[in-house]
Amino acid sequence: MKDFFNKETLDNIKQFCTQNKKYVGIAGILAGLIIILIVIVACGNNNKKNSDTESETQVSVEDFEFEKDYTDDAKDDINKLLSDYYTAYCADDLDALDKLATPISDNEKSYIGVVSQYYESVTDITPYTKNGLEKGSYFVSVQNNIKFIGVNTVAPTLDFFYIETGKDGKLYINNIYSNFNRTYEETALDDDILALMSKYTASSEFAQIQEDVQKAYEDAVNNDADLKTMLETTLSGAIKQWYTTARIETPAADSTQADTQTTEADTQQQEQTTDQNNTDANTTDQAANDQAATDQAAADQNNTDQNATAEQPAAPAEYQVVTKDVVKVRDGASTDAKELGLLKDGVTLTAYGTEGDWTIISYSAGANGRAYIKTENLQTVGQ
């Protein structure tokens, strides 16, 4: 090879190129075009390969499956977010909550103001996190203990949060999926996220955590009368009072109110027309009759109030039930009610009676500590 590139050989090549430079130039152009074509084809194949790879990563909601194990992704950031959230919640610090969770409606803010006055602290915060469909999104169930003011025993609970990453790269709680909005639905819920939540809560890992928390909750309530009173009387009564005062109107209720107002207006117009057409004597008689009717109505209302007070049903006697299979727990006595979780076969629960085909049970994740299970899936202890 060394002998090939001697001075004589190089001079011969140089002389050939000089004598045939026209053809050498054409050959160079062709070689350049071939190289460009090769580069274009290669880039096209790479782009197609990248496109195919991207399409393969775009999984639909129906096909998406959560990883079996809980993830440590963004663990420290999630822990801090939840710790700050619970601290602000207990303090009724709405300004701080607005920076951590969004959106928070005015009704939810007033609700937090009511319940937070009984909260002393939330401790032992343990999140169980799985990555969501979108990058930077997380489905998080949180085991914790609520310490109520004046109660020694803490109440074990299990919360749920849907956490996303904002444009600033920081995590925040998407509060559309808070327990409050999932109950009252002031803001529309995305069907895809709800479908993923159902998949999340249907997992055996979640069911195991829910079972452990529920057992701890039952033990705590049954072993501390003060905690039982706080949850089932004091806090429950405060929430009922809040709902009566700040009742969330539904479209049906608004429609009924509008109909009532129309009827009242028509009635007033009719009464005015009647009054104009009546004589003074008839008007006097009518006034007397109206007064008598008013007195009678007041007497009837007084009797009704007294009867209602006297006939107020006593709280149902508690009894124990055991699940006969893996069962769904719902927040209402209907298969259309929201699913709160799953319980395994053989879980013992406190029951408070039935509502149709459903049994009312003590459940940490339910509204006021109550939830519903189909009665056919339960066995009463001792029977």
Structure overview:
By secondary structure, this protein is α+β, with helices and mostly antiparallel strands. It has helices at 7-19, 21-57, 75-90, 94-100, 106-115, 179-184, 191-201, 204-223, 225-245, 251-277, 280-310; strands at 101-102, 119-131, 138-148, 155-165, 171-174, 319-323, 327-330, 339-343, 348-355, 358-362, 370-374, 378-380. It has a 5-stranded mixed β-sheet with strand order 1-5-4-3-2. Helix 5 packs antiparallel against helix 9 and helix 8 crosses helix 9.
Short description:
The chain has helices at residues 7-19, 21-57, 75-90, 94-100, 106-115, 179-184, 191-201, 204-223, 225-245, 251-277, 280-310, and strands at 101-102, 119-131, 138-148, 155-165, 171-174, 319-323, 327-330, 339-343, 348-355, 358-362, 370-374, 378-380. The chain has 383 residues and is an alpha+beta fold.
List the helices and strands and how they pair.
Blueprint: H1 7-19, H2 21-57, H3 75-90, H4 94-100, E1 101-102, H5 106-115, E2 119-131, E3 138-148, E4 155-165, E5 171-174, H6 179-184, H7 191-201, H8 204-223, H9 225-245, H10 251-277, H11 280-310, E6 319-323, E7 327-330, E8 339-343, E9 348-355, E10 358-362, E11 370-374, E12 378-380
Parallel strand pairs: 1-5
Antiparallel strand pairs: 2-3, 3-4, 4-5, 6-9, 6-12, 7-8, 9-10, 10-11
List keywords for this structure.
5-stranded mixed beta sheet, alpha+beta, 383 residues, 11 helices, 5-stranded antiparallel beta sheet
